[in-house]
Amino acid sequence: MSALDSVEVQCPYCWEVLDISIDPSVPDQEYVEDCQVCCQPIVVHVVLDEDLVPTVNVWAEND
Fold first, then answer.
1. Could you read off the pLDDT of 1-45 as tens digits, one per residue?
2. Which Pfam families does the record associate with it (predicted)?
3. Where does residue 19 rank: exposed (0-12), middle (13-18), buried (19+ CB within 10 A)?
4. Helices (H), 5-54
5. What is the pTM of this model?
6. How far apart are CA 62 and CA 22, in angstroms?
7. How many CB atoms are closer than 10 A to CB 54?
8. Listed residue (24, 27, 19) closest to 42, CA to CA
9. Is the dihedral of CA 50, 4, 59, 45 positive or negative?
10. Under a CB-based contact definition with an 8 Å cutoff, are residues 20 and 33 in contact?
């Protein structure tokens, strides 16, 4: 298992596909990360199942 896992998400502002890193040691996490393209704040919510497979949801910070 790597220190960080990589997942692809779509920015809710500019619709670009982004590659973000998540920490698989935290099973339920929520944080804000700026889009790498348009610099808008994106809320990232990650839930890991028992096999450490992530479910990632993102939305605009002002939603």
1. 458 899 999 999 999 999 999 999 999 999 999 999 999 999 999
2. Zn_ribbon_21 (PF14255)
3. exposed
4. none
5. 0.87
6. 22
7. 15
8. 19
9. positive
10. yes
